[in-house]
Specification:
alpha/beta; 13 helices; 7 strands; seven-stranded parallel sheet; Rossmann fold
Length: about 280
């Protein structure tokens, strides 16, 4: 557990295209809103970066691949990272580095490149949220998962997601890189269909993970993703305004990120900080 330092939280998925990016974005936006402190969101899905599309930025001015010369030379600075970031109008305090758009050059990124990026991000933001891919065969996912202070694994209620893919990454691959299953926490993504899927208690039992939160993929969320208005969903829609709040509060308490003036007196914040400090009311 990190205490009194700039923290790194990494979101990965057991399976692609289940809602991991939406969960990571909503969490980062919630922490920025609740704390009033600078939060960075790094899109590190090297082969399938979609966050810019979800936010309606078809042609980002700066993306991860644009920074590769600075990463390779080790010359990226907090000021350069801030200038490369995009802040959605409805999410002040949240800075986003859009991902690699040159899919055929994903293998050109090295662990040293990623370590430099994550080091500078820690210097720049109170909390850095990194959204990595479901596959570990790239420098971004491996480096970020190894470096993370909090590791969150998103999985859907489909058996193939939490059992087959979950066991492959959580039980087999993660330990190869020094990441113990006990260091991971779960986010359960409920697909938009009404029937099918397994209950959370079965997912907990199968994976052995503590489930921090559940996120329902609704038609409204899918519509906002398709129209490039994910930030509007988080800022204005009732479901979006509550989405991933529990995870945000969990990360704030775990990494001692203070709430905005007035929020520290709210019951949820007192309870979280009391729990962290071993105090019960």
């Amino acid at each position: 557990m990190s205490v009194n330092k700039h923290a790194l939280a990494v979101f990965t998925g057991t399976t692609p295209n289940i809602g991991t990016t939406a969960a990571a974005f909503a969490t980062a936006a919630q922490v920025a809103s609740l704390s009033g402190q600078p939060v960075g969101l790094l899109c590190l899905n090297l082969k399938s970066a979609k966050l810019h599309r979800y936010l309606g930025v078809d042609r980002p001015a700066v993306t991860l691949d644009s920074l590769r010369p600075e990463l390779r030379a080790g010359t990226l600075t907090p000021d350069k990272l801030r200038s490369a970031a995009y802040t959605p109008p409805s999410c002040p305090g949240l800075s986003i580095l859009f991902g690699n758009l040159m899919r055929d050059q994903a293998e050109f990124f090295t662990p040293d490149d990623m370590e430099h990026l994550l080091t500078v991000a820690r210097q720049t933001y109170r909390l850095t949220v990194a959204d990595v891919s479901a596959y570990w065969d790239n420098a971004a996912t491996i480096t970020a998962m190894r470096a993370a202070d909090s590791r969150l694994v998103a999985m859907s209620t489909a058996l193939s997601s939490f059992q087959e893919d979950g066991q492959r990454w959580i039980g087999q691959v993660a330990p190869l890189f020094g990441v113990k299953p006990a260091e991971l926490q779960g986010i359960v993504i409920h697909p938009p269909w009404k029937n099918g899927g397994f209950p959370v208690k079965d997912i907990r039992r199968e994976t052995g993970l503590t489930v921090v939160e559940e996120l329902k993929v609704t038609e409204s969320l899918l519509t906002q993703l398709d129209s490039g208005r994910l930030d509007n969903w988080v800022a204005a829609e009732q479901q979006g305004k509550q989405a991933m709040r529990r995870t945000a509060e969990h990360l704030m308490a775990r990494h001692v990120i203070a709430g905005m003036p007035g929020r520290s007196s709210q019951p949820w914040y007192r309870k979280l900080m009391g729990h962290r400090n071993g105090v019960t009311s």
